[in-house]
Amino acid sequence: MCRPEKIVIIDGSEKQKKELEKEAFSTGELVRLNQERLPGCAYHRTAPNDVARTENLTFICLKKKQDAGPTNNWLAPRVAYKKASRIFSGSMKGRVMYVIPFSMGPTGSPFSKVGVELTDSIYVVLNMLIMTRVGKKVLEYLGHDKPFTKCLHSKADLDIKRRLILHFPEDNTIWSVGSGYGGNVLLGKKCLSLRIASFIAKREKWLAEHMLILGIEKPNGRIDYIAGAFPSACGKTNLAMLIPPETLKKKGYRIWTVGDDIAWMRVDSDGALWGINPESGFFGVLPGTNSKTNPNAMITLQKNAIYTNVVLTPEKTVWWEGGEGPPPAKGTDWLGRPWRPGMRDKDGNLIKGAHPNSRFTAPISQCPSASFRAEHHHGVPISAIILGGRRASLAPLVYESFNWQHGVYVGATMASERTAAQYGKQGEVRRDPMAMLPFCGYNIADYFKHWLNMGKRMAKPPKIFFVNWFRKDKSGKFIWPGFAENVRILNWIIERSKGNIGATRTPLGYIPRYEDIDMDGLDFSKEKWDELFFINTDEWKKELKEQKKFLDKFGKRLPKELVEEHRAFKKRLEKYK
Ligand code: OXD
Ligand code: MN
Predict the structure, then answer these.
(1) Neighbours of ion ligand 2 (CB under 5 A)
(2) Is the CA virtual torsion 209, 149, 306, 160 positive or negative?
(3) Which member of 10, 199, 302, 349 has the lowest number of beta carbons within 10 Å of its beta carbon?
């Protein structure tokens, strides 16, 4: 169908990688960066209209429309294949088709799944080499009879009108055409590890989630693991790589990074939930990343990284807004135009050098906080689950749900303000259940039911918490300092999970007492603390109505447990003074 001129199988070798880089440097698909300052690093620009996931062009193609549900775009498989075939037809003429056998999760682990991506983009191949385990070992494991996800990608002509990101869960197949943006084309990531995997996970009774996994090490050396769901660009990467504040670091606290975006979790024979990160790299947002906000990321991306849509300097280094140090005196912006800091467009607006959703791709193994268990076939035991979002008002810093069922309600109704990782109006509140709204490969009401069932399968399900690092005061300033200081809250979450400390009961759930948080080295008053946890019942009543409106979309398919939870929440709120 694609009619490539040549087919090359990717074997995962360093030699082949070097050849591909050379080829991409010669055509301009990639720019080789300054090898003294950024060894092994390359630079790439996407097409100007191809800088974020295009959710409006992303489809779940199940046979029955109602199985995709009201939150997904749907196309009948037959129609979708036909529509895309027309675009794929001859799209690789004169190009090479690369065949990438890849494993999500350590090759051969009971958690892992194999995919094979066909693509006409060297950029995709080089990114996949970082983000997944690629090559001979995967092919050997696959043999002749193991199942794998069939992934087809072509840049075609990068025309937004001829762009489609199609998922066929019943066929274990993904077709993506007309894009070169990571989230649309690194098919192991959102497409396989979330949309297709969530569908498989329901059938096989496990969880495929848009979650980071981190370990928090205590002064006594014990490490407990937390999985956390946050909508795109809410700081998952920063949280996964946190360095505790100096006072806690000296006491012996430490954070270990297992993953920053995706978690696959299974109930093991001990009745506990265990998880892996199926990816082997980060595809992180750059603007705002510097050695204050995320020192571990800054070290991670110094070598063997791919930078996409940032400023290229004359010395062949890179820069982005909110990055390290002052901007270069001049450079080339993400659109390839000459750029100087302070430049304004004809309306007087500052021209950014890097796109707000510009990204780095880098191996997890280069991260100073990479967990020693990241390659472990068994993953890590999950002690707590946190859900979060960006809410300028309303939601307190943290609260603990009353039980698994209530936690599922909190997840099903959670909302966040829109960011640059999705097209659409930034700042607008959108409901994003478990941060899976754009990633659930089937009817999300059935996904809620699956979550409720998973709780019943565990001997001791992890406690579920909600966090909001982003609450603002009346003058619009963030109340909580966030970043490293969040370790204090993670620590409380673990203590609560172990049943080691008390808490205050509120209509939302349990909240921490000021005195239970280790505030050593942080000047944060009790008054501010109370402001962070203030429950505005009028606002919450409005929120409750919005939650109901959202849940009503699912009609009869909505699990009755969530209707019960809604009623119970309403009652608690009415009684609260
Ligand atoms: C991501 C996203 O890139 O969620 O991780 O958009
Ligand atoms: Mn993500």
Answers:
(1) 232, 261
(2) negative
(3) 349
Which amino acids bring their CB within 6 angstroms of ligand 1?
A: 53, 183, 232, 261, 283, 421
Give the bridge partners for 264, in sequence order.
208, 276
Report the C-alpha gap between 277 and 214 in whole angstroms: 10
Residue 157 to residue 374: CA distance in whole angstroms: 38
Same domain assignment for residues 124 and 179: yes
Nearest to 492 by CA among 167, 248, 276: 248
Dist. CA 4–CA 95, nearest whole Å: 5
Distance 277 CA to ligand 1 centre (A): 15
DSSP 8-state assignment for residue 505: E
399: CA distance to ligand 2 center in Å?
23
Ligand number nearest to the C-alpha of 419: 1
Answer yes or no: are the C-beta atoms of 255 and 485 closer than 8 Å.
Answer: no
Cα of 261 to ligand 2 centre, how many Å? 5
Ligand 1 pocket mutation, candidates 46, 232, 279, criterion most atoms within 8 A of CB: 232
Going from the Cα of 181 to the center of ligand 2, the distance in angstroms, rounded, reads: 14
Using CA atoms, how far apart are residues 135 and 102, in angstroms rounded to an integer? 7
Answer yes or no: do 105 and 244 share one domain.
no
Number of structural domains, the chain?
2
Residue among 194, 261, 360 whose CB has most ligand 1 atoms within 8 A, to mutate: 261
CA angle 28, 31, 34 (to 5 degrees): 155
Hey, whose CA ends up nearest to atom 4 of ligand 1?
Answer: 232
Q: What is the pTM of this model?
A: 0.96
Select from 340, 331, 284, 291 the least CA-distant residue to 311: 331
- The residue out of 177, 205, 233 marking a domain boundary is 205
- 213-233: pLDDT as tens digits: 999 999 999 999 999 999 987
Considering the domain boundaries, does residue 25 fall inside one? yes
State pLDDT tens for residues 492-519: 999 999 999 999 999 999 999 999 999 9
Q: Which residues are known catalytic residues?
A: 234
Element holding 177 (H helix, E strand): strand 173-177
